[in-house]
Design goal:
2 copies of one chain form a homodimer. Chain A is of the alpha+beta class and 284 residues long. Chain A contains 10 helices and 12 strands. In chain A, strand 5 and strand 6 form a beta hairpin. Chains A, B: This is Oxidoreductase.
Amino acid sequence: YIPLPTSLHRRWVTAAAEKGKHVLLEKPVALSAAELEEIVAACEANGVQFMDATMWMHHPRTTGMRAFLSDGERFGQLKVIHSTFTFAGGPDFLTNNIRVKADLDSLGALGDVGWYCIRAILWATDYELPKTVLASREPVINESGVILSCGSTLYWQDGKVATFHCSFLTSVVQDLTALGTKASLRLHDFAVPFQENSASFHVTSQFSSPLVSEHNVINDLPQEALMVKEFACLVASIKGNGSKPDKKWPTLSMKTQVVLDAVKASIDSGFEPVEVVSPLFCTT
Amino acid sequence: YIPLPTSLHRRWVTAAAEKGKHVLLEKPVALSAAELEEIVAACEANGVQFMDATMWMHHPRTTGMRAFLSDGERFGQLKVIHSTFTFAGGPDFLTNNIRVKADLDSLGALGDVGWYCIRAILWATDYELPKTVLASREPVINESGVILSCGSTLYWQDGKVATFHCSFLTSVVQDLTALGTKASLRLHDFAVPFQENSASFHVTSQFSSPLVSEHNVINDLPQEALMVKEFACLVASIKGNGSKPDKKWPTLSMKTQVVLDAVKASIDSGFEPVEVVSPLFCTT
């Protein structure tokens, strides 16, 4: 498990992989998709498993929500997604934390909490990449160029639209809403559930009664433990059965990173639309 | 009370005002700010009260939320607002309803449900107009040019940002979220409360325990009755005491309309940013 600041990931993942160590990597996994390609290539070359530490992916609630979104009868067709992840960093955080330092985590809030928003949006679309990304025009950037707050709109070929906002500047919010033609799904603790042993999501539908229903999912282990368990299973399978490392996890990291890169590129271009280029990596 | 399609408002409000009738007008109040100026001028010239039928403004919950947003100690400074109002119109609605007919309500979803989103956003900022509006790039527009679904980002001089999405194409959602530096406010039934006799809003703050708290407000009358009551009070005051018509209500309508016009202009310009021009009306 590598929890180091993002700027150190390439060096230390490469070193770990070369020693035959499997890698569970803190997010954001890299400063760019190009860097992530090197990281993943090092893992592949050494036959070690790569997984990013996006813990909520391993919560059974996530599986339950996936089943609901995939149910055309109940949810209909996905049209709009909105996600917000913010917390108020406070003066000490905004001065001293590694996540506001250009040489450590230059992606700032976009890399830290925006990563979760982007992953959640991609998760909702079953990992279909948007065709275009347009950053919101008012990011807050500190004097060393680190993003403290930003937002973006994502556009898909079929007309789906997503928006997200991520920030270190407002009190904690971690919302995800997915609007379908027949119902919508909503939760306010998508990344870190309010409770450790159970979590819920809400469904709203004008076609059913009650209008709003709560769906609760019990978890016997915290999502972080479930993540480690899944990682350990993959590693055991490689060690015991000679399996190949699972490609799903590096692919999800790469898709998240290319969208994140596109948001950054849109900010850097003065808020022009940026096309999302599907990474070569994901098509092999 | 005039519930007619928007394209008939100017003609019938003018006729009513000339007969000395006070006007409670269904939203969207007009097809453009220019048209609304004529409507309000007709009311002023005849000394009659004008009020738009934005019913949730009269719910006591709205007063409670206003007090919370204005409380710097608890809420901090407002930074981000997000609002969504959608419902699934269904095939019959999308073919035959007045709100999808170019000659009746050409603003479509923007005028119908977008009106509420824009008003809610302005309400949250205490009616400070944004400086710029940028429409989202993927509106859905029917063959006669009526908006069925659209979104927008609004920018204020001081860095506040708001986004909204309105549509006839996804199942019912009516969300409002306001993010402050110290807490956030959230509700899922801002325009039409889930229950008739009480309504709640949620506050989330990383600086208090519990993280999320629910604030419930009882109303003895439905919000529609409270609206009519307030309108009747203003009219009684004009008739009984010779008061002048209250300027607050036409001003709020006009501010909502100029933002709505800017969103429409941004869509029509191919998604360019549009400056919001403060209406002359509001400065007199």
